[in-house]
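Reviewer 2 asked us to include a model.

Predict the structure of this chain.
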Amino acid sequence: FLSTMSHEIRTPLNAVIGMTHLLMRNKPRKDQEENLNVLLFSANNLLSIVNDILDYNKIEAGKINFESVPMDVNSIARNIIGGLQNKATEKQIDLVVETEHRLTHKVNGDPTRLSQVIYNLLHNAIKFTEHGSVKLIVHAKAITDSSVTIDFRVIDTGIGIAPEKQKMIFERFTQADSSTSRSYGGTGLGLAIIKG
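Predicted model (structure tokens):
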């Protein structure tokens, strides 16, 4: 049901986003531009929730497929940081990345899923950080002629998670505190997708 409904919602939602972009190109008045920005932000937010539901459904049904193609891990990390820079700037927090200089070749993996996991972790960190910084570290733990083991770390100066709550945040529609969704928003699906 959720999967079917999500597909049905996504189609008109993409039209709303497309039409909003068209209206923004038509030199709107200042007050109209502000309203269009709110509309675009809200529509993109809803689209993100719908996409999370679709992905989680695929994981639960065992229908998620992983591809193995050459990918540039450092480039993926930098692109994600670039895409989230505005969110960090709005909150006046630093968003930095430390890439792995020893990764001089592409590695085989699934760039879409890797991006999704890193994006969700960073987005979460930015959301729960009011002051300071969020940092992504890409570190090669082991490099051989045929394989590489990469450690990705997200470090932030946010509110943190109590040790007893750290396991439950990976359950679907769950957040560490019932007041969290009121203060910060979100569905609690992002980390469940990462675990999946």
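The chain has six helices and five strands. Helices lie at 2-24, 30-60, 73-90, 111-127, 180-184, 190-195. We have added this to the supplementary material.
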